[in-house]
Every structure is written in C-alpha cells, then in structure tokens.
C-alpha cells in the first residue's frame, strides 16, 4: 500500500508540472493536477473546490494609462448618505463625453443608485433601466474616444436603506449579487473599471468591511471579470485616513487573477475647510495628504490609487489650489493613476462644484484653469 501511495504521489508531481488546457481544472481543495494553465488562458477560481483555465484572460499584462477626467452625475441624484433612495435618476447628457475627450479627458466616473440598478436588494438588474439608461450612458462614454475609461460607480455609502453591508444590513451575498451581474455584462471590457462602493462611512468594523470587499473581488472574478477594481476604504474613502485606517487591511486583499495590479484603491479628497466638497472656496491643495498616501502605497507593494472625487468651486482659491493638487496627481503617476473631478453630468451650471459646460459650449473657469492643463 505504501508503495502504491508513493507511486501515486510521484505521478501527481509529474502531472502537476504539466499545464492544464483550456477549460480544464487547475486548482481547488484536494486538487493534485496541474495548477498552471496553457498560454492564452488564466487559472480562475470559482470556489474553494474548483478553478478552471479560462481563455482570453492571459492577455498581455495590463496596466492603466495615466487617467484624468470627470464624474458625470445624475443616476445617483437623491441617494442619501444613509443609502436610501426614492428618486428616479437623471441621465447625464451624452454630448459631454465627446466634449471632454476632445479636450484630453479619458476617465468618466458614472455613479448610480443601487436601488435603480436592482430595485430589490439582491435581486436581478432592471434590464429596462439598464439598457435604456445606464448602459446607454456608459456606451456613449466609451464611444467618445478609443482611449476613454469608465468607472461604474455603485454610489451607496456601503448601505441599502440605512443599513450597512454585513454589519446589520445587506449580506455579502446580496452585495456581491449586483457585481456578479455587472461582471456578466462588462467583465471582459478592460476600459470599464468597477467602483465597488462609493464612500463607506461610519463603519463600525473596518476589518469586516474589508472582508466584504474581498468577498466581492472573489465573486466578480468567479463571474469572469477581468476588470480593474476600485477598492474603497472608510471615512468617506478619505485619502487622508487611508494610510492608517483601511489601507493596512485593504493591501491584503487578494485577486484570484493573481497579483494585485488590478486592485486599485479608491480615494477621495476635497479642498474646502471641512473636506466636504460643499463650499465654493478652497483652503488646501492636499499635497501633504497625497504625499503621505503615495509613500504608503509605494512602501506597501507599490500599489496604485485613483482620486475618483475631488473638486472645488469656480473661485480664485480653487482655481489655484485644485491646479496644484492635480499637477501633483499627474506627477505621481503611476502610484496615483489619475483623477476624476466632481462633477459634471446632469448638474446644472450653478451647482457649487459644477464643471458642467455652459449651453454655448464654453467650459467653467475651474475646468479651463485647473483641470484641463492636468489632463493626460
Ligand atoms: C425615502 O423614503 C423613506 C421612507 O419614506 C425615508 O425614510 C427616506 O429618508 C427617504 N430617502 C430619501 C433619500 O429621500
Ligand atoms: C425598471 O426601469 C424602468 C425604466 O426606468 C422603470 O420604469 C421601472 O419602474 C423599473 N422597474 C422597477 C421594478 O423599479
Ligand atoms: C458662454 O456662456 C457663458 C455663461 O453664460 C458666458 O459667461 C460666456 O461668456 C459665453 N461664451 C461665449 C463665447 O459666448
């Protein structure tokens, strides 16, 4: 018996050195066969017991280009910070995408209310809304330039109707459900970045939140997603809190695709007196905060972040300070992969942080002076 077991073990060692073919098993608990895949495929984990070589996944190692652009808001209008929502959403004007790409923008963040995408928690995507509204907007943004990237942004503050994911509210499965459905729609388009969740805040247990993030990462990969993923921390995705609060835990999140180059951190930072993004005047350029963030990312595996919300009023102070900030972001590539300013889209031209172009096609002064010069 011992002899037979030894033979079997020896045989499996030899077999493990071969590569698994397309659609063959390449891992899982008790799996003793090949764990690497033939070229052109990638070993993709579906669950603890089964991984399979999925074709097309092993495209050349991909990395993000330098990104710069704008949030086009509207489908998030009237999502409250407690994750409740009774609205209808408003479509961002499609013409803005060619307007901004014509000036060098290549990143559009498109926020949406969880309740608009899946009217029932954990239920199916509303296909009518998706095809007539959200996806139409996403396709307009993608079509505006062959180089444009879109962040699909679930804008719900880690909450559904007042309750926090996995901490009294939705289960991790319900959270993962919307993303596995979006992975089935957008999972092979590398120009679509999944913004897993906008601005988690007042999270009782940050480690539990990071477990929810890992849960979604595993789920979208299991559903075939190869997208870059934006992982949010705590305290409203604060760039300032990141190195000491969620960052040390989020850097441990793993990617079933292997490596961490597709796990990008999502950070926000405003420039007004209370960092809320509600005042027209700016009081800081955040270069100190971003310098600390960059050194944290570099000393924790050379990771990357995107400043997916920042902005200011159309005032002299913001034109100067936002310009400094975005120049710093640009010079910190690739650690800081880029930025998207808050906000254009369905906001009118009088909103305090508006960068919505005027009806005559002219840009807001903040756009022209502080943002446009720092686009890629
Ligand atoms: C939506 O309606 C519910 C129930 O009436 C209410 O508690 C909640 O505050 C409302 N949310 C918003 C964003 O208006
Ligand atoms: C689905 O979306 C359509 C189009 O916006 C809307 O009319 C309908 O009420 C939505 N269905 C649900 C269940 O919310
Ligand atoms: C466009 O409209 C804005 C806002 O009304 C105005 O300030 C600006 O002068 C106009 N520009 C041109 C070129 O007409």
Description of the structure:
The protein has helices at 2-17, 95-101, 114-117, 127-143, 172-186, 206-222, 247-250, 287-299, 316-331, 365-371, and strands at 19-20, 25-27, 36-37, 41-47, 50-55, 67-73, 107-112, 149-154, 159-160, 163-164, 192-195, 229-232, 263-268, 305-309, 336-345. By secondary structure, the chain is an alpha/beta fold. The strands form 4 sheets. It has an 8-stranded parallel beta barrel with strand order 6-7-8-11-12-13-14-15. Strands 2-5-4 form a 3-stranded antiparallel beta sheet. The chain has a two-stranded parallel ribbon with strand order 1-3. Bound molecules: 2-acetamido-2-deoxy-beta-D-glucopyranose (NAG) (3 copies). The site of one 2-acetamido-2-deoxy-beta-D-glucopyranose (NAG) has 3 residues, from loops.
């Amino acid at each position: 018996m011992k002899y037979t077991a030894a033979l079997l073990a020896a045989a499996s060692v030899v077999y493990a050195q071969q590569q698994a073919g397309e659609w063959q098993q390449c891992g899982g608990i008790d799996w003793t066969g090949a764990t690497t895949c033939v070229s052109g495929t990638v070993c993709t984990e579906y669950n603890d017991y089964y991984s399979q070589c999925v074709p097309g996944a092993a495209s050349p190692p991909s990395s993000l280009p330098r990104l710069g652009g704008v949030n086009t808001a509207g489908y998030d209008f009237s999502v409250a910070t407690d994750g409740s929502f009774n609205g209808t959403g408003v479509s961002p004007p499609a013409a803005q995408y060619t307007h901004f790409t014509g000036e060098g923008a290549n990143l559009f963040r498109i926020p949406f209310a969880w309740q608009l995408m899946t009217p029932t928690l954990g239920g199916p995507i509303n296909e009518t809304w998706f095809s007539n509204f959200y996806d139409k907007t996403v396709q307009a943004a993608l079509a505006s330039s062959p180089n444009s990237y879109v962040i699909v942004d679930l804008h719900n503050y880690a909450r559904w109707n007042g309750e926090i994911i996995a901490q009294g509210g939705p289960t991790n499965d319900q959270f993962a459900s919307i993303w596995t459905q979006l992975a089935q729609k957008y999972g092979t388009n590398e120009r679509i970045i999944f913004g897993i969740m906008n601005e988690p805040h007042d999270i009782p247990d940050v480690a539990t939140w990071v477990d929810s993030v890992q849960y979604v990462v595993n789920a979208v990969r299991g559903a075939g997603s190869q997208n870059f993923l934006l992982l949010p921390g705590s305290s409203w995705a604060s760039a300032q809190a990141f190195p000491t609060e969620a960052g040390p835990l989020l850097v441990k999140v793993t990617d079933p695709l292997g490596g961490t180059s597709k796990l990008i951190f999502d950070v926000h930072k405003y420039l007004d007196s209370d960092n809320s993004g509600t005042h027209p005047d700016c009081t800081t350029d955040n270069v100190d905060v971003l310098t600390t963030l960059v050194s944290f990312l570099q000393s924790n595996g050379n990771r990357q972040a995107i400043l997916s919300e920042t902005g200011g009023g159309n005032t002299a102070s913001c034109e100067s300070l936002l310009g400094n900030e975005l120049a710093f972001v640009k010079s910190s590539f690739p650690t800081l992969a880029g930025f998207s300013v808050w906000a254009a889209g369905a906001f009118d031209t009088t909103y305090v942080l508006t960068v919505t172009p005027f009806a005559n096609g002219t840009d807001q002064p903040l756009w022209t002076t502080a943002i446009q010069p720092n686009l890629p």
